[in-house]
Amino acid sequence: MRHPQPGIFALGTASHAYLEFDASDLHLRADLVRAIASMREPRTTMGGVNLVVGFRPELWREVAPDDAPTGAEGFNADLVGSDGFVMPATQHDAVLWLSGSAYDVIFDVSRTAIAELAGTASVAEETSSWPYRHDRDLTGFIDGTENPTLIHAPELAVMGEDDAGAGGTLLLLQKWAHDANAWEALSEADQERTIGRAKLDSVELEDKPPDSHVASTDQDRFGKIFRRNMPYGTVTDHGTMFVGFSAEQKPLAEMLMSMAGLGGGGTRDALTRYTQPLTGAYYFVPSTESLRRLSPGVEA
Predict the structure, then answer these.
(1) Distance CA 262, CA 266 (A)
(2) Where are the beta strands (DSSP E) in 105-157?
(3) What residues form DSSP beta bridges with 175?
């Protein structure tokens, strides 16, 4: 049986870093996959750091064709909504997501990882994140209300034993910048109508507008995903890192299309009037056994 990378489900961590890499040369892309796979050794967990690694789906398929999800592909083209709203495609070759109890440890392990990949790949995108008021995002609303419990999350987010890519999952990673001034200028009632939930307790509004965020991303309609969103940034420049896992790419892709106004009534998610996507990438996150199989000198 193949198992998902445990860091996916390691809740309660106080500091996060997302490092996206591009291979230094096309001929080094397979070397990059193997180098990152070898990081799954004990040295990467020193200080209580969880490490989750993922790869551009097409790149993983090149290196491990017998262990790749069917049909999965990178975020290779901008998603343009019905009114010209754009979700940019910023696909890279690999991602390292590090999480732990404190930023000093994340900082040190991140620098070590970057040094180990020097000559093979360079950092194309780097973001640091942290929790806000326990479980809220920077809009002040609870994030991940519909998240499945840790008991049910693996069966919803992880590919089954009979599936190509067994034990793996697909990650959608996006960085969304908030227009805090515009958002905070809204009344609480208008904020609730935009989200589709009550701000205090996250109860879904019975009369939520059809373009509310909850209606636009209805998981009963598109399929369940497992989210590990985190706030990022500084006092003057901040937003949300969307970190969504699914056993299939379709629910993630269809949610994005709905948010952009490309499904149903053709109206985009009201929340996108106050937050702007800056990045967008899909990564295949292989099972621990699949990574070990590619690690030099390690048997699966």
Answers:
(1) 5
(2) 121-129
(3) 241
Q: Which residues pair with 233 in a beta bridge?
A: 238
> In one letter, which amino acid is 266?
G
DSSP bridge partners of 122: 22
The CA-based dihedral angle spanning residues 265, 242, 273, 192, taken in that order and rounded to the nearest 10 degrees? 80
- What is the rounded CA–CA span in Å between residue 227 and residue 94? 19
Q: End-to-end CA distance of the chain: give it in Å, rounded.
A: 11
The pair phi, psi for residue 66, each rounded to 5°, is -85, 5
**Degrees (nearest 5) of the Cα angle 41, 167, 116?**
25
Per-residue pLDDT tens for 116-173? 999 999 999 999 999 999 999 999 999 999 999 999 999 999 999 999 999 999 999 9
pLDDT score recorded for residue 263 = 78
Element (H, E) at 108: helix 103-117
Angle between helices 103-117 and 29-37 (to 10 degrees): 140
User: Are 67 and 9 within 8 A, CB to CB?
Assistant: no
Dihedral Cα 123, 41, 171, 209, nearest 10 deg? -100
Q: How many residues does the chain have?
A: 300
Structure tokens given for 74: 């990178």
**Matching residue, tokens 């292989």:** 286
134: DSSP letter: T
Q: Which long-range contacts (CB under 8 A, 24 or more apart) does 142-148 make?
A: 142/197, 142/201, 142/202, 143/227, 143/229, 143/240, 144/227, 144/228, 144/229, 145/197, 145/202, 146/219, 146/224, 147/226, 147/227, 148/224, 148/226
Backbone angles phi, psi at 241, to 5 degrees: -90, 115
Those residues of the chain that have pLDDT short of 70 are 40-47, 296-300
